[in-house]
Every structure is written in structure tokens, then in C-alpha cells.
Amino acid sequence: MTVAVIGAGECDQDIYRLAYDAGRALAQSGYRIICGGLGGVMEAVCRGVREAGGTSIGILPGDDPGAANAYVDIPIATGMGIGRNIIIIRSADVVLAIDGSYGTLSEIAYALQLGKPVIGLRTWQVSEKIVHCNNIAEAVNEIVKLVE
Questions:
Q1: What pLDDT does residue 148 have?
Q2: Cα–Cα dist 1/33, whole Å
Q3: Residue 107 in contact with residue 95, Cβ under 8 Å?
Q4: CATH of domain 2-147
């Protein structure tokens, strides 16, 4: 199963730690991670995935795969700018939104349009279809329930 982790390209230490812990927990649970491959939440989740022995895929907005953060295992340069957001969501089975700004909001909208489950941690509250969780353990439990 592939989990898209979406969130802010820049974040404070608290959100970074939350995303890092999410990456570790998801990788330890056997999930592949797909994200935007850059900084902030994306870097933190990829770092957690790497340190837990998992695999992360970064769908990059530009043409250079070398622009990916240092923890992305598989960088995919799209040259599509923000258009890459639909690829991230379309490629995932479930979406975990952590914090985020308008790019995250667009990805949440795509997920809802496509009928993909969305789990939220400190993120947009735009739909009753988003399952908002208080911590990583709750979020991972929600994802596990979706697999069963």
C-alpha cells in the first residue's frame, strides 16, 4: 500500500518532528511513502522512512531529480510544477495530510474528488470526510483500518 504524505514545504520543529515520526511509523508498518520530495514535511517524512528502512518516492515539480531532499529514495522529476500534485494523490491508496498551506489544500481536494481516504494531523478542516487525528498512533491506526 502507498501512503501519500502531504504538507508544508517549510515547517517549524514541532511539525517536522510530527512528520518524521509519521514516516518512521508508516515505514515500520510496511507502507511505501509518496510525497512532493522537497523540504519541510516532505523532507521530514522521507527522513523518518529512510531511518526506519522503508521506501520513499518524491514526485518533484521541476526537471532535476537532484533537487529532491537527501532522504528521497526514488526521485521522479515531472517538470509539471504544481501539476505534480495530482500525480502524488492519484498514485496513493490513502492520504495523510500534516499541516500545510494551499498546495496541501489542493492535494486534499484532489483526494476527496477521487474518493481517496484522507487522514489529517493539524491540517485543513474543510470536509467531514477528513478523519482528523490527534497523534501519529491514531493516524496509523486509521490507515491500518482502511487496509483491513
A1: 65
A2: 9
A3: yes
A4: 3.40.50.450
- 14-34 per-position pLDDT tens digit: 999 999 999 999 999 999 999
User: What is the C-alpha separation between 44 and 64, in angstroms, rounded?
Assistant: 20
Helix (H, G, I), strand (E, B) or coil at 24: helix
Q: Which residues does 25 contact at the CB level (< 8 Å), separation at least 6?
A: 48, 52, 136, 137, 140
Nearest to 69, CA basis, from 95, 38, 25:
38
Q: Could you tell me the pTM of the whole model?
A: 0.96
What is each CA distance from 69 to 46, 63, 143, 146, 148, in whole angstroms? Answer: 8, 14, 25, 29, 32
Q: Rounded to an integer, what is the distance from CA 95 to the centroid of its chain?
A: 7
Most distant CA pair in the chain: distance in Å?
38
Q: Are 146 and 139 in contact (CB under 8 A)?
A: no
Domain edges within the chain: 2-147
Angle between helices 13-28 and 136-147 (to 10 degrees): 30
Name the helix (H) or strand (E) containing 110.
Answer: helix 102-113
